[in-house]
Amino acid sequence: MSAPPRPRLKSIIGTPSGLSIAPQAVDTTAVGEPKGAARKGVRTSPDPQTGDAADPAPARPGIRIYAPPVYRHHYDGARWSKRYSDTPTAAYACTCGRSRTATGQDSVAALVAEYDAHKAACTTESTALTEGRTAA
Predict the structure, then answer these.
(1) Using only C-alpha atoms, what is the Rg of the chain?
(2) Which domain holds residue 118?
(3) Alpha carbon distance 108, 90 (integer Å)
(4) Considering the domain boundaries, does residue 87 fall inside one?
(5) Number of domains making up the chain
(6) What is the pLDDT of residue 111?
(7) Residue 121 included in any domain
(8) What b-and-e string marks burial along 21-31, b requiring 16 or more CB atoms within 10 Å of the CB?
(9) Which of 8, 41, 97, 108 stands 20 to 30 A from 68 (CA)?
(10) Which of the 8 DSSP states describes residue 136?
(11) Interatomic CA distance for residues 95 and 25, integer angstroms
(12) Does 84 map to a domain?
C-alpha cells in the first residue's frame, strides 16, 4: 500500500533534508566601534538664551530679585522654616537712569515697593513698546 496524500495546508512545511547555516555578512565585526561613527561628537554653540545674570541697567531696565527658598526637613511636618539658606538680593534700573540695589529680606521688600512707586511716577517714556519684538 502507498501512503495517503498530504493535506494542502499553509502551516505544514516539508522537513529539511539536512542542516543549513544562516548566511552571515562578510565584513561585520562582532565588537568595537562602528565604522564611520563620529569619534569626537558634534560641536555645539553656546546656548543663545542664556542671559547674563548681571544687575539691570538703564539700557536694560527692569527688576531682578533673588530670593532662595527656605525649606525644613521633608519629614518635619512643616514645609517652611525661619532658617534661611542664603541672603535675598534685588536690583532695579529705570530708563531715566535711576538704579538701586538691596540685600536682606526687609531691604528687598522695601526695594520692590520703591520700584513699583517709581515705575508709576516716572515720567521718562519707555522705548520698550516702540522697539524690538513689540514694535509690530
Answers:
(1) 36
(2) 62-128
(3) 6
(4) yes
(5) 1
(6) 94
(7) yes
(8) eeeeeeeeeee
(9) 97
(10) -
(11) 71
(12) yes
Let me know if 62 is exposed, middle or buried by CB neighbors in 10 A (0-12, 13-18, 19+).
Answer: middle
Which whole number is the average pLDDT over 109-129? 81
Cα gap 56→92, rounded to integer Å: 6
pLDDT of the residue at 5: 76
Q: Cell numbers 527656605 label which residue?
A: 70
**Count of beta carbons in the 10 Å neighbourhood of residue 16:** 7
Provide the strand spans (E) within the chain: 62-66, 89-93, 99-103
Specify the residue for cell string 517709581: 118
Any idea how long the chain is? Answer: 136
pLDDT in tens, 41-56: 666 666 555 555 567 8
Assigned domain for 4 exists: no
Note the pTM of the prediction, 2 decimals. Answer: 0.47
Distance CA 61, CA 124 (A): 12
pLDDT band, very low/low/confident/very high, at 102 (cuts 50, 70, 90): very high
129 membership: H or E segment, kind and range? none
pLDDT at 60: 84
- The tens digit of pLDDT for each residue in 50-80 reads 555 567 888 888 899 888 766 666 665 555 5
- Contact call for residues 83 and 44 (beta carbons, < 8 A): no
